[in-house]
Amino acid sequence: MSIFGDIVNKLFGKAKPDQPPPAAEPTPDPAAAQAAAPAAAPAPAPLTDVDVAAVMDQFVSESGQTLNWRTSIVDTLKALGIDSSLEHRKQLAQELKYSGDTNDSASMNIWLHKQVMQALAANGGKLPADLAG
For residues 131 and 94, what is the distance between their CA atoms, to the nearest angstrom? Predict the structure, then answer.
């Protein structure tokens, strides 16, 4: 499974613990989602009606750590219990088609956080206005 898929499954599982995770692999690319979906019956987004901020705040609270998931990809991954190592973030960057220098981790991290938030929104997650754009 993809790293982004892990992120979505963690959020979906926490938001709707009584339902199984989505069977289809979520896509970080909205254009690919449209191309893969049949024209007559588009597949439902796996994060439909999930308040990402509320779920992430709950993860942070349960972690017992001081984490700022709203600005940090490292803290986002830590809150979700996902490996936040540089190698893992480089893999996520490759998965999300980062074209910059992965050795410039500060720039990559900023880009990753923005892309993950946009991809969550593209997959139906509800984000606060300051993170949705």
Answer: 22
Q: State both tokens at 29.
A: 């690319």
CB contact at 8 A, 108 and 89: yes
> 62 in helix, strand or coil?
helix
SS3 (DSSP) at 39: coil
- DSSP class of residue 97 equals T
Nearest to 80 by CA among 103, 52, 59: 59
Q: Which residue has the tokens 């960057």?
A: 93
C-beta atoms surrounding 90 within 10 Å: 16
Closest CA to 121 of 56, 28, 55: 28
Q: Which residues pair with 126 in a beta bridge?
A: 51
| Residue 54: pLDDT over 90 | yes
pTM over 0.85: no
